[in-house]
Amino acid sequence: MASTVPNPEAGRLAYWRIMTGLQTHYGDFTSRAVVDIAGVGHRKTIENYLAFLIAERVVRVVASEQRGATTTHRYRIMNQGDAPPLRRGDSNLGQRQQALWMAMRSLGQFRASVLAEAASTDTCVIARETASGYVQDLLRAGYLAIAGSAPERKQTLIYRLVRNTGPRAPIVMRPEKACFDLNVMRVVNLNTRLTVGVAA
Known about the structure:
Layout: H1 8-26, H2 31-38, H3 43-55, E1 59-67, E2 70-77, H4 93-107, E3 109-110, H5 112-119, H6 128-140, E4 144-150, E5 153-161, E6 171-173, E7 178-181, E8 186-188
Antiparallel strand pairs: 1-2, 3-5, 4-5, 6-7, 7-8
Helix pairs in contact: 1-2, 2-3, 4-5, 5-6
């Protein structure tokens, strides 16, 4: 009997529960099995969510089976925990946030303009405004602290990373005023006690 999922957020949680349940019982799962349980009406949404999880390296392909022209992939969740939310924004947002996060981990202390420059590459140029927005989101979630102001411009703040939880960039959840940390697989905000320092 197909399940009824009333909204996208409930859908994400339901799909994640199905994926984790299948993995617990069988060691991995296929998108077909998730669709069969959730209902065929959820196929596209499930495929989009699974593609996001693969791109964020939360899920990976562990085996592939070829039957005629059809290839069936078997997936495994690499990091157990809560259901990651989708990044809100354009399709390249995750790439830019990942570049900014890695630059933060490398620099330690930085201004938004310096961070944008350090995170940019020939193929991924990051605007100062983009860096500043992500900095403010992580400041509110407790990942960053204000270290001072630039000597030449007192209004320009210098930030430092105080919650270096690992290599994956936190996903901003602005309506909830929080972040989802892919390194610890749960929501983090200013009211959450978080163990710091999962390096790599």
